[in-house]
Backbone:
């Protein structure tokens, strides 16, 4: 799937963050002193520097990791608002929406030992649900993501990868959770969704490319390298109902010829089930799913 980057203005992003904040308050979720309020404050700073055509000073004077996550998680919150703001009130996943406002602002302050990683893990789950719904696919539930595509029900299990040493363990847990779901509900197919943002180490946390075309090469290289190095962990499953592994990577990037700090993202789907194990119609669902997701407006 081709990488994409946000082309909307920062003024528009701030307006949409305001809409997201108001929606959460309307459904009785308190956003005061939350990660969303911190994100909004930093996005106001980023917007101000863009108006003054002063992106290089922004990068020099602010912690790049803060700029990285303010930019990336703005996109996640906007995806979620776009997908669920008109959802029937009783179906809104309020518990998960409350969770994503908590936890440390920066991942470097996350510590599994003190169990403060749940908020960002939940944010990834809701973002994947939002991307699926924003592509026009019906989302049924949030454990992690239940949806129907081409008349077939799927369950997606989402994992953020914190270390290259944890890939096998996280994939294994996702398989176990999907298998329980499939055993409980019967005719369901499974997906594994992996976020590799934290796994990829970039100097100063900001990608730098000369033109927008440079994003495609760099993002594709990162996701393809991850798949090449780790696909044996999901390919070895004998469960033919596990259809594919979705790799999600996003990054903050400077496009030098536009003097632009923006969010870019890449969704790569690696089939698990092979044609020999499925009827042709069943295997084509994977290709159709990729096509529908890639039509989603970034």
Residues:
């Amino acid at each position: 799937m081709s990488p994409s980057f946000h082309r909307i203005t920062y003024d528009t992003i701030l307006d949409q963050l305001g809409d997201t904040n108001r929606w959460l308050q309307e459904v009785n979720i308190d956003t005061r002193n939350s990660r969303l309020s911190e994100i909004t404050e930093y996005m106001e700073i980023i917007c101000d520097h863009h108006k003054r055509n002063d992106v290089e000073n922004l990068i020099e004077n602010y912690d790049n990791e803060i700029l990285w996550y303010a930019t990336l998680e703005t996109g996640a919150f906007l995806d979620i608002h776009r997908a669920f703001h008109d959802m029937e009130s009783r179906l809104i996943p309020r518990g998960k929406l409350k969770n994503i406002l908590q936890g440390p602002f920066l991942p470097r302050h996350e510590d599994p030992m003190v169990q403060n990683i749940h908020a960002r893990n939940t944010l990834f789950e809701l973002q994947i649900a939002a991307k699926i719904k924003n592509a026009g696919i019906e989302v049924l539930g949030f454990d992690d993501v239940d949806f129907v595509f081409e008349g077939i029900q799927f369950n997606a299990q989402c994992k953020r990868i914190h270390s290259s040493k944890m890939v096998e363990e996280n994939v294994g847990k996702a398989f176990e959770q999907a298998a329980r779901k499939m055993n409980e509900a019967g005719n369901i197919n499974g997906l594994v969704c992996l976020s590799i943002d934290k796994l990829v180490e970039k100097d100063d946390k900001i990608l730098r490319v000369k033109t927008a075309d440079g994003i495609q090469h760099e993002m594709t290289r990162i996701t393809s390298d991850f798949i090449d190095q780790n696909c044996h962990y999901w390919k070895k499953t004998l469960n033919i109902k596990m259809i594919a592994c979705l790799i999600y990577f996003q990054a903050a990037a400077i496009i030098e010829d536009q003097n632009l700090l923006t969010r870019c993202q890449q969704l790569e789907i690696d089939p698990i089930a092979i044609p020999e194990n499925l009827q042709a119609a069943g295997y084509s669902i994977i290709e159709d799913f990729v096509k529908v997701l890639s039509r989603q407006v970034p």
